[in-house]
């Protein structure tokens, strides 16, 4: 059973926020905030739409490091070297403490190996799903709980994924988080695959 979280979806542009509202409509405990990272109120965990090497010097990652300090990036890179032999796969995520009690954690969640287009792929889903699982594992095992989780528009920057598709894949991941399967069979797999790769009858990811 999924453990409840308060999901904040942020972006500075109204168009992306509208896409979030459209795709997450009816899903519980979701708040859409038109905001930059720097202007967010206190929260428990911010998800970084990262690259596989933890080089956090551009985009929203750079804003995170300006706020928390470069030691956070060094710790992230050390974990990537120690736990992933220097390259964190897409579809994985880990929770790293920031040292700031008002913003105590980040989830480092690559959407791409290196900056470049991921349009037409399911990498937004994979990174969002991995982030939700990392938070779930933390909540299940740690005394320091994560209640509020902030997601940017995964893959919308350097990844070049259109806003509606970003919101669609992220919403599918959250739906799957909220409703895990009770059995493993091919019917379940086929339904999940169609939800990820198709928007109605239109195939949008390869």
In short:
The protein has 206 residues and is α/β, with parallel strands linked by helices. The chain has helices at residues 14-23, 59-68, 70-84, 123-141, 163-178, 186-197, and strands spanning 6-11, 30-34, 45-51, 94-97, 105-112, 148-151, 198-199, 202-203.
Explain what you see.
This is O-acetyl-ADP-ribose deacetylase (Regulator of RNase III). Pfam families: Macro. Residues 17-206 form the Macro domain. The chain is an alpha/beta fold. The protein has a single domain (6-203), classed as Leucine Aminopeptidase, subunit E, domain 1 (3-Layer(aba) Sandwich). Helices cover 40% and strands 18% of the residues. It is built from 6 helices and 8 strands, in the order βαββααββαβααββ. It has helices at residues 14-23, 59-68, 70-84, 123-141, 163-178, 186-197; strands at 6-11, 30-34, 45-51, 94-97, 105-112, 148-151, 198-199, 202-203. The strands form 2 sheets. A 6-stranded mixed sheet has the order 2-1-6-3-5-4, sandwiched between helices. A two-stranded antiparallel ribbon has the order 7-8. α1 (14-23) links the parallel β1 and β2. α1 packs parallel to α5 (163-178). It is globular. The two termini are 30 Å apart. The model has no long low-confidence stretch (mean pLDDT 95).
């Amino acid at each position: 059973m999924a453990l409840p979280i308060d999901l904040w979806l942020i972006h500075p542009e109204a168009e992306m926020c509208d896409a979030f509202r459209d795709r997450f409509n009816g899903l519980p405990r979701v708040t859409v905030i038109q905001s930059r990272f720097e202007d967010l109120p206190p929260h428990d965990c911010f998800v970084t739409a990262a690259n596989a090497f933890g080089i956090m010097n551009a985009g929203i990652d750079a804003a995170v490091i300006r706020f928390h300090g470069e030691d956070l990036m060094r710790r992230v890179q050390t974990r990537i070297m120690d736990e992933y032999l220097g390259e964190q796969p897409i579809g994985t995520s880990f929770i790293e403490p920031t040292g700031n009690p008002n913003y105590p954690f980040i989830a480092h969640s690559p959407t791409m190996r290196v900056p470049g287009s991921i349009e037409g792929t399911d990498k937004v889903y994979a990174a969002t799903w991995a982030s939700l699982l990392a938070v779930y594992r933390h909540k299940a095992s740690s005394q320091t709980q994560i209640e509020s989780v902030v997601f940017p528009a995964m893959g919308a920057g350097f990844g070049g994924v259109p806003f509606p598709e970003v919101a669609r894949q992220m919403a599918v991941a959250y739906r799957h988080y909220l409703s895990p399967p009770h059995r493993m069979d091919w019917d379940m797999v086929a339904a999940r695959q169609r939800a990820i790769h198709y928007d109605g009858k239109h195939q949008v990811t390869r």
